[in-house]
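[Meeting: bench + compute handoff]

Bench side (C.D.) handed over the final construct sequence. Compute side (W.E.) agreed to return the predicted structure before the next meeting so the bench team could plan truncations. Sequence as handed over:
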Amino acid sequence: MTSFSIFCFVSISLNSSNEPISVTINAEEPDIGICDVIEPSKDSLIFRKIGLTFTTLFGEIDNLLGNSSLNPFQSLFPLAMYNENVEPEQQSETTEKCAEQMSRMLGYLKELYDRVVNLLSIAVNLCNQLISLYNKNSNKYYESVYKNVHFDIAFEYLGLIMSYLNAVDCIVNQKEDLCIHWESYQKVFYKCKNNMAQYNMNEEQKNRLEKMIQKITACLLENNCFDQCMKNFIKHTGCFTPNMSGHNRITENKPFVAELINYIKKKLSKLGQDIGSLTESNERTHLMCTISLVGLYCKMLEYDPNCPNDGSVIKIAWNVLQKVSKVQILGNIFIDLGVFLKKFRAFQNSSSFDIKALRDRNSRYLDIVSK
């Protein structure tokens, strides 16, 4: 086996000519680059541009999520801990007090909204890059190069973004006080809006704050961040834009769908073997990322009935979730991956996906964790 690095971005392992090339991308400075091994050519410059593009996108994701290798959900800590350490006798009861307490969170919620929007825009960019690479109709290098190249790390980062959106929904769903206090804050705002002079508010301030409240409510605090982002994701990627022939690109671009399915099945199979090992806590986080990517694939099936449907994805996901379907996000916030997948028609129509059995296992698992 021969391996070398492309401009410190792409590491390639070459097996036999009949086996695919595995590609991993790391922003590390190697001792020797491809230009030191072979003479630069047009093809190597193309790989350099691809590596630079992906590495830039991955760097942006890492900047938004902090050190994603440790805990990609660390930036959600204020949301998960909201009102957590307040004694029962100090709990806010009146609408005004609840609104005052929530007003201290407004800056963080605005920051979280911006982070979600930025992550979504990167996910759109990343997906469009992959669609362009795995396209035998428009990419002349597909047959000679990309057909046997798997950019697994690109799908891994895509799953990381999907899992972050999923985590936001999970936290909001389990933080009842957060939603109640946010409703109180909205009531107080609209009270001020109807009497701006009394509360020393001008028209510009009113419009800016109202727009912010509407965005935060729709994107973050209605327990549908994942679904809302998926709608925008599908709308703004090239996946479902009809071309001149009236067909959707995702239907014609079977290589891209095949790569997505291949990554999901390969990753789930590996995670199923690693659950129970010494690195199980890390593997559970990776499992959430991969299951969130399964959610993206299910959305693709719902939006485009002609999208290639691989039933083995459901089977493999079910086999892994039988071992573990609860993943800790932060503190006492856990996500039930079985309940998440049951939202999608592909799993609703599957007779082999027994959500009750998963819940029984989850109860036993939480009993063990709590002890």
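W.E. noted at the follow-up: The chain has a mean pLDDT of 76. C.D. will use this when planning the next construct.
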